[in-house]
Amino acid sequence: MHLVPGFLYTLPDGRSLTEATGRPYARSVPTSWFGLIPGRSLLSGPEKAKTLQPPHKHMSHQSRLLLVIPLALVSSVHQLQAAQNPPQRMTIGIISDGPSERHAPLLELFSREILELLSDDFDASLPAGKFREADWTLAGVNAALDRLLADDEVDLVVALGLLASHAAAQRQELPKPVVAPVVLDNELQGLPFKDGASGVRNLNYIALPQTTTPDILTFREVAPFTKLAILVNGPPHDQIPGLARRTEERLELLDLDARVIPVSNSLDAALRALDDDEFDAVYLVPLLQLSSDDFDRLAQALIDRRLPSFSWLGEPEVRRGIMTGLKPNSFFERLARRTALNIQRIALGEEAGTIPVAFPPRERLSINVATAQAIGVYPKWKVITEAELIDEVRTEAERTVSLVSAARDAIAANLDLAAEDRLVAAGGQDVRQAASVLLPQIGVSTLGSIIDSDRAEASFGSQAQRTVSGSATVTQLLFSEPAWANLSIQRSLQNSRELERERLRLDIVLAATTAYLDVLRAKTFERIQTENLRVTRSNLELAAVRQSVGVSGPGEVYRWENQIANNRQSVIDASAQRNQAEIALNRLLHRPLEEPFLTADVDLEEPALMAGEQRLMSYIDNKWSFRVFRRFMVQEALARAPELRALDELISAQRRALSSAKRDFWSPTVALQAGITDVFSRGGAGSGGFVAPPGSGFEGLFPEVDDVSWSVGLNVSLPLFTGGSRFAVRTQASEEVARLQLERQAAAERVEQRVRSASHAMGASLAGIDLSEDAANAARRNFELVTDAYTQGAVPIIDLLDAQNAALVAEQVAANAVYDFLIDLMNVQRAAGEFDLFRTAEERNDFFNRVDAFFAEAGEAGRR
After folding, report:
1. Looking at residue 212, what is its pLDDT?
2. Which of 128, 234, 412, 419 has the fewest CB atoms found within 10 Å of its own CB?
3. What is the mean pLDDT of residues 210-233?
4. Is the pTM higher than 0.70?
């Protein structure tokens, strides 16, 4: 809707719509009539108050129309008047506590926010001549404030500084509006407070969150301590009576020995005070009087002294070396915007003393990891779950893993596959051994012997007492059915081993790609849980605001604190799951298990996958084509599945064993054998051979044998009866063939089941991507609406909790859907026996050609 200019709309918690939305009153805002409370006209002043009743939620369409028409007329008249009348001039003066180089960026930020917000309705200016810089004393600040209050050209004063804000807020009478945006603790400073505002005419101050106690409690969670040094900006604390003493007394309630140490222009005195006492930690209140170089020197000095440090200002100073803080980097931007909004409300006619002073806190723990490690502080898990880690020392990022590289690296380095390679290599030697039996067998031997002389003499020279001889034999198997069968069997078994290796390769590719996608999924879940924790922290801040304005009690704050504890545990669990997924992937890639790595995201348009190709999507986007596509994938799987082809090889081997067992009844074994023997030397008795005595009549009767002898033989053997073992072998081989054939049928059924089941899962997960994204978008929009209603006090905390949990679950389901589809796609490809990751462009085209041909054949069969 379009809000009518000139009217102030407020929420049930007392805040203006402008303050709640951060948008000027006259712009269209995405909200509803419900929950808006109309107020008086700001343009007309309090003496001409007007009211506007919002339409009732049950108002008829005609009634709404009757109301909208005059509203449109009012809006048009106002716009016409704005075009005819020039914007009202407005001059703003600014006071700072004193000279400081760190004031310049703050002054520029506040000036920019004020001028941008007022530019639509006023001719606003912040002249340099209306800027007053005091001397870091309360007297100097009061003098500068008196001059601006007495200046007729100044319409409004901004007391930009702790001393300036304190001095302005102490005054009970102000002749013109004053905005004091830097109040550290209105209770400790004793400032006026009535019904959530200052209650003093023309005075609006912004009470910064009273975070000292929460800061200290969080600080102690990061680094336990008992004696605390509080470094404060010297002049403000010296000029505001009792502020340091009351601060120390408040911290005594936390069982802390705290001491306030003022820091002025000289840093050395403060460092000496730190050295004079044994402090455990240091808390830094804004030290704007310090130069930038001195602040950096202070941060390094605290590190050198190994003192844990906490910055009230939070992340900006943590990034400069302070160990930790709670405020996010946007703190001053929010403060400047809130100051500008309050000035706009005052300029439009609202009384400054009635504008709420509460400034809702926004907390986000930041930790400078380099500083923490330098001083030996290692925060616990529950602390760092929602912390912004700054200057974290990282040893990772030397390698990046993608879906394709995970698959290829697993094939190259996986130990299970390497072991299977060795098994295949060893099996190859079984084939060589089987073939070696059919090749010539050649052997040589040498024999040296000594016998007793009596036996040598009695041998009549056939055996010398000492003999050295050598022999060589050659055997060639001419025919042996078992040997030829064994060679054929070993070849089939080797083919089976190679196919088993291929099966394992596909399984490892599936495991690696799934593990990689699980890492991406775990990272996404960790991010979602972390963001959910931040949302819960934001809701806790809303609850604190609701409690401060009386919309709710402390129970809601406690409920959100409980939710934060639960969300922290969820973040820790998600981080552990991410670590486990990374370890699992590293194992598959044979890397050090906790070696860090970066990941490349994967989506449906991944070039290495065919999932994003429209040709593939056209096969699965309707019931009929999806059914035909499943049949095609089954056909592909049955032809390619390595487990089926391995069983085919085993069946072939067993059939050869059966045929050999049948032939064994009648086929002989035929072998040719030849040998040669040579006596190298003879000695001792009988070495001269047998010589007949002269005159014995036996001379020449016994011819002399030379030292070389040879032989050639043909061996044919056929066992006639083996006790029935050949019958047993034949029967066993026949049963093994039948068993393997049944195993093959069962394996084919499993392959088909896996293809069809994985295909159905892939189809369902593909459809679930868009549906889950729609559900997540709806849950997010519902959560935003419920959050707005909760902010306005229109719904209870339970509704917001339900909406947040629903949004969290929907976000997880949406993220899960993409990874589920990709994993299901990997399962389909594994079942079909081939992955897209390893297909060339030609192989992809061939795949689609086969699909088209199958669809064409299926269509023709359907027409017949």
Report:
1. 76
2. 128
3. 85
4. no
